[in-house]
Structures are given as C-alpha cells and as structure tokens.
triacylglycerol lipase
Amino acid sequence: MRVWVALVIATALVLAVWRRSSPPSSHVPRVRTVVRPVRRLQDVRGYLARRATVPVARVAEMTRWETWEDVAQTWPDVSDRHTLRMLARFACWAYYETVPTHLPDAPGWAWSTKFGWKEGGLRGQVFATAHNETVVVALKGTSASFLPGGTTGQRDKDNDNLLFSCCCARVDSSWKPTCDCYHDPQTCDSRCMGRTLIERSLYYPAATDLYNNISYLYPNSQVWVTGHSLGGVLASFLGATFGVPAVAFESPGDRVAATRLHLPIPPPTTPDEDAYALVPVTHVYHTADALATGQCVGRTSICSRTGFAMETRCHVGQSIVYDTVRYLGWSVGVLPHRITVLISDLLAHDWEPRIRAAGSARAVHGWLPRPVPSLPGRAVPAPQRETLCQGT
Ligand SMILES: *[C@@H]1O[C@H](CO)[C@@H](O)[C@H](O)[C@H]1NC(C)=O
Ligand SMILES: *[C@@H]1O[C@H](CO)[C@@H](O)[C@H](O)[C@H]1NC(C)=O
C-alpha cells in the first residue's frame, strides 16, 4: 500500500516539474527565418554615387563594370503564414504616423523609429527585434482615397502613373500624359521612358538615400524591407539594389519599371537565365486585386476614373499568388487592393484547407462544377517566378 502511495506522489512530482520546465505557450507564433545567399554589388554606395553623376544614357551599361559578391542573408520564411502576416502588419503601420511602441501581434519586436513624416514624400516606420538583430523598414504606399493616411496623394499618383503605366499614363486622348514618350497607340518610345523615369521619378533616389540613412543607424542589423502597393515596389527596388530580403504586398507589376530604371541587377550566369527573377524579392498578392494584377487598363477600367493608369502586371523576384477569383469566387476590383484584406482575411487562414472547404461547399450547392483538387494543406501558396509572364 505504502509503495503505491509513494509511487503516486513521485509521479505527481515528476509531472509537476515537467510542466514547469516546458516553455509557456505563446498565442502568437514567432517570426521564422531561413538563411539564403544573395548576389549583390560589392560597393553599392559607390555605384549609387556614380549613377547620380553619369549621363542618363550611360546608366544602362553601368552594372557591366561592377563586381558582385555572394553573401548569406537571413530571410523571413515566406512559407510561414504568421511571418508574412506580421510583415503585412508592419507594411500597414507604415501608413500611420503614430505606432504603438509595444506590439502584442509581434512578440519579440518593437517599434523603433519613423521617417519622412515632416519632410513629405517618402515615409514609413522602422521595427526592430530586442537587440536590433533584425530591423524591418516599412515603406508607405500610395495615399489614394481608398487608402488610409497622409497628404501626399497627388504626388504619389503622378509617380505611380510614371512607374506603372505602359506609356506616360496616356490612357486616351482625354488624359494629360505624364511624359512625352507617347507617339501613337502602337508606339511608346521605351528609351524615352527609361530616360524620363531616371530623370523624373523621385522615388528611386529618395528610397536609396533613405536606405543609406537607415543602414547607418543600424550598422550591424540584418535589414528587411516591406511595404504595400507603391511602398512594396519601393521595397522591391531596395531589395534588388542593396541585396536584402524584401516582401511586397499587393504591388503593381514592377518589372517594367525595374527594367526601365536599369536597377543594378547581377548579370545572368547563363544567357537564358532571367536575372530579374533572381533578386531577393517576394511579392504577395491575390487575383481579385485590379492594381496588383495590372487590370487597370484602358478608359473603361475601374481605376481610370480614380486617375490611376496601372497597367503593368509582371513582377520581379518570386510571387505568392492567392487565386481568390478562382477558388473563392471574389470579383476583381480596387477595394480588394487594401492591405487589410490580406491581414484580416487571406493571411488569417491556412490557404489550402480553406479553398478545399470552399470547394466542397460550392460542390454541395452546385455553383462550382469543377472540384478543387485535394492537395496537402499548404498554409501559404507556393512561390513562383514570373519568368514566363507575358507582356509588360
Ligand atoms: C537599436 O538601434 C537604434 C537606432 O540606432 C538605437 O537607438 C537603439 O539604442 C538600438 N537598440 C539596442 C538595444 O541596441
Ligand atoms: C538622409 O540623411 C541626410 C543627412 O542627415 C539628410 O539630409 C537626408 O534628408 C536624409 N534622407 C532621407 C531620404 O531621409
């Protein structure tokens, strides 16, 4: 009898000690990272200084004379839904001038500093881990009426149209073109577009300046850049230029602008390699977003009434694309472009289990004839390269 009592007490003690030593369960999962190599300019600051002084016509050939290096970078793990969602929250906070210092949604992270709110133009917020091991630079996107924050609307729109329309935002004869490269409906002078972008697009030099300033503040940190819409494109340009991981949410196609701006992209190792697909940039968007998918084309498009000509659709780097039109029956528009759609809807659920459930519901109610294939449950769609993207 005594032996049994002793055994029961001993088991209870062991259990108590074991429960104490197991870590407290946190409700919000932590950010996950992966280490991957990135090829980048050995002297990016020197390159940018030279780029600012050479004649515009020579910018295109500049990278031919540069030296490149391969460095290991700690990336956010973009297959992890919670990591993406936290970055999306940071990108959303970039629209607001005031951010709470303590972020319950992002354990281990805190707000660190803000930039550009007094000067106008490029603005955003910086978040950091406890000892500045990793910092996230979140850039603010366009301030159209359907987006929160700011008074930079008209300037943002001009720059958006310069970057993302096929030709100077001349949608039809009623539009005042933003540049002189439009000749007739079949011809846009692409060298002229490149020249205009390099001369007039305020955002690229402003973004690289800003990055220089921030990396001076955090000399030993791993930097990640993020943003929504135009902010995401700027993040993508910085990722490509400085060779740091960038995650862009709901950004319009940035490949044409990256090409026209002649970003310092490493030369491909084989002639058929697509260098623009190899930059450390991850785009995250969904198919019902008219701006991210380049469906703002022509006079009758949803966006043209709001003064936007966002016609480009091919992205650099890799893309995580939620096909909300096909699997969830969403209709294409401007409103699905909001970052809150990602934060409180798409990134709040595991994707494949969700579309399977939606598929069976539709099969039962009979309005989706084709059943959704039963796949292993990925939380986030697999990234793909837009190497075969047709058109702009
Ligand atoms: C992190 O970097 C910022 C900006 O340089 C600095 O103000 C802060 O003291 C740093 N924090 C730590 C814990 O080193
Ligand atoms: C970078 O820092 C310099 C010097 O402090 C300042 O003049 C400039 O405006 C800053 N640039 C940006 C984009 O913040």
Summary: The domain at 33-385 is CATH 3.40.50 (Rossmann fold). The chain has a mean pLDDT of 81.
